Amino acid sequence: MSRFFFPHLVLVSVLVAPASNAATEPQPAKKGPSTEVPVVIQPGTATKPAEGFQAPSLTYQTQQSGTPLNASNSFNRLLKTARRHQAPTDDGIHDPDNDGTKILQPPLEAYANLPRTASDLGNGVDWVKAMDEHIISPRWDIDDPEMQPLVMDMNIIRFPRGSIPNELFPHRQHTLWLDCSNCHPAIFIPQKGANQISMAANLLGQKCGTCHGKVSFPLSECKRCHSQPKVLPGREGVKP
Amino acid sequence: MRRLLKLAFDKHAAMNWRLLLIRALALWAALLAFAGPASAEYGDVVINNYAETQGMRPVVFPHWFHRIRFACKVCHADLGFKFKAGGNDITMSKIIEGQFCGACHNGNLAWSVKNCNLCHSGKPGTPTQVHESTSQELAVPAERGKK
């Protein structure tokens, strides 16, 4: 349903712009249908504007065309994630009438000191960086706050077909959070070449998609996995 | 009100900013009436396996809140939560016995199960799902035809 929200923004701009024009332009005193002609600036007539002249805003085009902006032809009609990080009372899945909902923490309050990602996709938080910089220290054991994870620093590089940049899988970032048994052997067989991984499987929530696209950074952050520029045969020295 | 509505949808009215304002407001009101804002935080899980059939609101589990405090391993390896929304057979009696959520939510490590509405805070009628997950972002549902 959130696809309806972008039209709101468009409408807000439509609502605001005519009001500001109205505030600055002298209005005719007469009532009834207006007969005034919208100001049109001809291209190429670069004259100095008169005193107190307000340049017409872009909304004039909408007014001239005679049709209001139409929800069925809105920009980015199928984009689904327009609003992020809403407080529980506004997020659409919590019941705002529930007393408990009001005392739950809003996500942005928790993210205040955490490093954010440029894309703001997913939680918009760089969780590994937050851990590396000791801004958060998630417990490795339910009772013992001192217990440390068994970190394995081993990178695996995979070579996807075509010009897709090679994919680097860092074990270190994953073993900061997870136990070996979380992935091996049920999701990934711990053997070179034994795993058939595809983006299609990921999209369906298998393989990497078990976490990425649900809680870890989403699949739309392509370059965080496909991070190694590929040198194509015959195109050495060509920058990607 | 009726006059306003009539004016808003009158094809022959000359365009001026007031009319545009009225039309925009009418459109906005219509959109607001249609739009149920679903913009939960990424990774929020709604669990409604049993709750609503037992007369309680669905449970909302915020991943972001818990991963600040615990590594994934604690719940997903030690406590046995599977990586699948709704894939864990969680009941209140198991929680009171100290399984699943009850391993922490025992009044000792985290607030106790007596705070019913803090977990059971979901909007009635919300099905079991992971919010903002890939399958929800796709314009055509990837799992269509699975059930």
Write a compact overview of the structure shown.
By secondary structure, chain A is mainly alpha-helical. Chain A is 25% helix and 3% strand. Chain A has 3 domains: 1-26 and 42-83, no CATH class; 85-113, no CATH class; 114-233, Cytochrome C3 (Alpha-Beta Complex).
- Largest interface, C-beta within 8 A: A-B, 80 and 71 residues
Give a count of the beta strands of chain A, DSSP E runs of length 2 or more.
2
At the fold tier of CATH, the topology name of the largest domain in chain A is: Cytochrome C3
- Over the alpha carbons, how many angstroms does the gyration radius of chain A reach? 27 Å
- Could you give me the name of the CATH homologous superfamily of the largest domain in chain B? Cytochrome C3
Proportion of residues in extended strands of chain A: under 5%
Spell the H/E element sequence of chain B.
Answer: HHEEHHHHEH
Count every beta strand of chain B, where a strand is a DSSP E run of 2 or more residues. Answer: 3
Number of helical segments of chain A?
9
Q: So, CATH architecture of the largest domain in chain B?
A: Alpha-Beta Complex
Q: Assign the CATH architecture of the largest domain in chain A.
A: Alpha-Beta Complex
Structural topology:
The complex is a heterodimer of chains A (240) and B (147).
Chain A: H1 5-24, H2 59-65, H3 99-102, H4 107-110, H5 127-132, E1 155-158, E2 167-170, H6 171-175, H7 180-183, H8 199-203, H9 222-225
Antiparallel strand pairs in A: 1-2
Chain B: H1 2-8, H2 17-34, E1 44-47, E2 59-62, H3 63-69, H4 72-78, H5 92-96, H6 116-119, E3 129-130, H7 134-137
Antiparallel strand pairs in B: 1-2, 1-3
Helix pairs in contact in B: 1-2
